[in-house]
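Backbone description:
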Amino acid sequence: MRVLVGLSGGIDSSVCAYLLKKAGYDVEGVTMLIWKKDSPYPAPVSPTSCYSPARAEDKAEIAAFCSNLGIPYHVLDVSDLYESVVLENFRTEYMNARTPNPCVWCNQKIKFGCLVDEARRQGIVFDRFATGHYARITYDENSGRYELRKAKDQKKDQSYFLYRLSQDQLASTLFPLGDYLKTEVREIDEREGFHEPGQAESQDFYGGDYSDLIGQEDRPGDIVSTDGRVLGRHRGFWHYTIGQRRGLGVAAAAPLYVLELDSVNNRVIVGFEDERGQSEADVSDVIWTSREDFLPGHVYKVKVRSTSRGEDAFVTKTGDDSFQVRFLSPSRGVSAGQSCVVYDDDLVVAGGIIKSSALDKHNKPC
């Protein structure tokens, strides 16, 4: 079987290619370029960010790795589409007071989408596409569906960022690291001499101040309480994130948190700890990852942030591409625009984009 492996130059993708080659697959490597010199977006401070000029400069090292491993190597430029799909979505969502997931869109549209399509268009022949993500794919004979599941290493699990992969994408994808612990992957990497011990990990997609990507001049506005009282001033609502506690510049008897961002009136709504909980969330633009519906009365684990352990909730399908979540205990992480992923044990059932929450009443025009 021919397998095309996405290579970033990091530990995980390198060990992924090595394991596949060792298992007898006919392996080829590919690197996608998402940064371009004439980009209107500023370069991030961190060189380990996915979106960074440094990634383009890694090509020589990756080519040397592929040569030593004895596999062909390709470089494909998808920077135009990355800007128009991922970065423009990021800017649009932020300016509409929503919290985007750029890595989620990159996986669905770019890495497992146009990169694979472009590789085939350029005549690269392969049966499967593989990456160094920590997740697992299984197949259910009864439903006839491919299933996305959490990785063995719960601390490194990346299934949250992969929930938007379609059945066709899951059917043609391999995740060799899904059954490994990160410590085991590092041991293999160091044993084979792919990187120096203590090699730094890649950070998030940008690694800097997200407001730099927005490209907006400061626009002063009010910081208000949930009952509309003006507590202070800010430089623009896009400089804040839901749940933020530090850097508000407002004195209060107890810590204040950002509860909502009002793009219409350029307001930042803040409140105390006991005002953060939300009992429900409406989710749209749903991908039915492994199942096409939810079991009535069943308690699922729902993640509304990538770092969440999951919160107990009832989930009800409300349409072909929508569902509603009712948390058993108020959730403090719900944010419009963020991905909401539903798990049944280690199975990714479905996921979508949070459309509204119980706090949306604060995000209305005056």
Residues 360-366 have pLDDT under 50 and may be disordered.
